[in-house]
């Protein structure tokens, strides 16, 4: 058997587990590992400019591909900088492995230079973590870490490695386990058949059903099975912010996103539903509004891989623990075998009702917002233009704020993994690095980061990484000169007292900034120049382009749930409500 | 309602802190906690008591089970079970009267006096929580100097058992 040092074992194990790219940033405790990276070519390292971005980029790569993303950081500040990225991935169940250097074993606990208890600090925001104490354990730990990250409900796994463990002069046999077995971890796959039968019966008897699906469909690659079940039943489908693309956004049966900024028709249909088929969604507070008023008439079928998600917020009438794919397949086959036939009359009445709602206050009704004119650019129109120019085929990443909601509402995602955003943690700064990760995975696909002038400044340093690694992403900056979403809440709940949500003319010249990093900058102030400029932007296939688009500063995101209300209690504009 | 939760887990670095962390992170309280390796040294048994209704207990059990290191998690209060706690109490006993009274109390509660000085008795007592509470109550007027309790250990009655 080959003898290798701990550093070499780590990199070899990464290769053997299938890793091709690692995002990271070096430092003292990780230097043996970085030297091992230097001496091989199988695993490519991409240097970022801040460790938070390393984790977000690995995350964006993972969301775009479904593979486990990998980040590498040093101890202390490197590790703590990674924390926001780890928490972001944890909230959205994204499989990542984060490898952190640690001070030498003999110094642990001594308050050594750049010592942070990484396993301790990250504990509440990881699926699992390891402290590797011997070079002999590295390969097996890496195999376990990737297995845990990717299976069951996925999530980030931290592997903390003290510097002495990667020491170049201590060599041990390299033995990579090709199978991982853990007696304490055996994720269940298939849902309970009896429960699935009950669910199918409830579905077939439904008169006002809604299929409500979340990120689980995307993560589990279950979109085709969802489509098959939805088509078979002719039921309306709504997606959560995390679930967009899990059902085709342009499909007739799609009624839009639900929740705080969901469509009128989706939220109203949920409220009136008699059966809710929730798949890979977790009844988040941004979806349900006030729990006590949530969907008063509905029988709730809840499918989730994670038993702790089921009946956590909303008691499920028919709980099913299993993967989205396995349960949906079983549902479809049981529907086909069943002797109950769906109540097509009731379903067609239900559709009539939903279509009426859609025609009255849907996102595409004329009165939704004032359209752009020569001088003012409406953010909604920018997203519609982006959709048109990219032919609906781009991968869109986003930051957090109004721009994120406009992107979610107005870009119709037909495919899973096309929409990449930080839904659970709501991390400003996620957009650009995650776009880099997606672009690395799909160099021939347009990748656009829809952002705001607030969010983009939280990871703007990565424009430099785009240059270094040739990652020509497009930055669509919806510049409203404010922390728009904060200002919207201040308008609605604090009598427009704009406490710390405006910058007093301190914003940088984004065009000059982009150019300083070696990119193309564009500033757009008039609606009638938007289309041409955006075409120009996307025509530059091999350039990173920063489009600084000055939008109407006063626009709010609607619909919006009224605090304390039910799902159908919505503000539809600054003056109209349901 | 009081819950006794028995957890069998890998005897590994960080496993205990993950269990304890879960409780604070999710806003549950731990009333008592005991932990030790089992006959199989690679496994630890952890018994904890907490308060909660059925739904909360269910959620706690599910959350504990989700931890990667846990192998089995059982809410013993769901079925017939035995609970025991060990207590060591140091009580003031310098006069003859109080020494006699304490001795008879210890006898009634089936405890043992395990250490004696001219001014104190140290008593060892095992039993369920209520019994230990009752003893403390009974001798409190004599002057308790120190109470050390192990926290609850539990096991289910009959043929049922929790193993890996
Ligand atoms: C790291 C972080 N800090 C603070 C917030 C709170 N927050 C949510 S939206 C928002 C404003 C975002 O401003 P901008 O990026 O310009 O987007 P806009 O709403 O204007 O479109 C803030 C501060 C957050 N989500 N993330
Ligand atoms: Mg803004």
UniProtKB/TrEMBL annotation, chain A:
Domain Thiamine pyrophosphate enzyme TPP-binding: 399-549
Record-level GO cellular component terms: acetolactate synthase complex
Top enzyme class: transferase
Free-text comment on the cofactor: Binds 1 thiamine pyrophosphate per subunit. Binds 1 Mg(2+) ion per subunit.
The Thiamine pyrophosphate enzyme central domain, residue ranges: 196-330
GO biological process, one term: L-valine biosynthetic process
Domain Thiamine pyrophosphate enzyme N-terminal TPP-binding: 5-118
Family: Belongs to the TPP enzyme family.
A molecular function (GO) term: acetolactate synthase activity
Recorded superkingdom: Bacteria
Cofactor: thiamine diphosphate; Mg(2+)
Pathway given in the UniProt record: Amino-acid biosynthesis; L-valine biosynthesis; L-valine from pyruvate: step 1/4; Amino-acid biosynthesis; L-isoleucine biosynthesis; L-isoleucine from 2-oxobutanoate: step 1/4
Protein name, UniProt field: Acetolactate synthase
Catalysed transformations (reactions): 2 pyruvate + H(+) = (2S)-2-acetolactate + CO2
EC number of this enzyme: 2.2.1.6
Source organism of this protein record: SAR92 clade bacterium
Coiled coil residues, start to end: none
Keywords: Amino-acid biosynthesis, Branched-chain amino acid biosynthesis, FAD, Flavoprotein, Magnesium, Metal-binding, Thiamine pyrophosphate, Transferase
InterPro entries per UniProt: Acetolactate_synth_lsu (IPR012846), AHAS_TPP (IPR039368), DHS-like_NAD/FAD-binding_dom (IPR029035), THDP-binding (IPR029061), Thiamin_PyroP_enz_cen_dom (IPR012000), Thiamin_PyroP_enz_TPP-bd_dom (IPR012001), TPP_enz (IPR045229), TPP_enzyme_TPP-bd (IPR011766)
SUPFAM superfamilies given in the database record: DHS-like NAD/FAD-binding domain (SSF52467), Thiamin diphosphate-binding fold (THDP-binding) (SSF52518)
Automatic annotation (TrEMBL), chain B:
Keywords per UniProt: Amino-acid biosynthesis, Branched-chain amino acid biosynthesis, Transferase
InterPro entries found in the cross-reference section: Acetalactate_synth_ssu (IPR004789), Acetolactate_synth/TF_NikR_C (IPR027271), Acetolactate_synth_ssu_C (IPR019455), ACT-like_dom_sf (IPR045865), ACT_dom (IPR002912), AHAS_ACT (IPR039557), AHAS_small-like_ACT (IPR054480)
Role, per record: Catalyzes the conversion of 2 pyruvate molecules into acetolactate in the first common step of the biosynthetic pathway of the branched-amino acids such as leucine, isoleucine, and valine.
PANTHER family with a match to the protein in the record: ACETOLACTATE SYNTHASE SMALL SUBUNIT, ACETOLACTATE SYNTHASE SMALL SUBUNIT 1, CHLOROPLASTIC
Source organism: SAR92 clade bacterium
Domain of life: Bacteria
GO cellular component terms, semicolon-separated: cytosol
Catalytic activity field: 2 pyruvate + H(+) = (2S)-2-acetolactate + CO2
Listed GO biological process terms: isoleucine biosynthetic process; L-valine biosynthetic process
Subunit structure: Dimer of large and small chains.
Lineage, top ranks: Bacteria, Pseudomonadati, Pseudomonadota, Gammaproteobacteria, Cellvibrionales
ACT domain ranges (all copies): 4-78
Pathway(s) annotated for this protein in UniProt: Amino-acid biosynthesis; L-valine biosynthesis; L-valine from pyruvate: step 1/4; Amino-acid biosynthesis; L-isoleucine biosynthesis; L-isoleucine from 2-oxobutanoate: step 1/4
Gene Ontology MF term list: acetolactate synthase activity; acetolactate synthase regulator activity
Protein's name in the database: Acetolactate synthase small subunit
EC number per UniProt: 2.2.1.6
Family membership noted in the UniProt record: Belongs to the acetolactate synthase small subunit family.
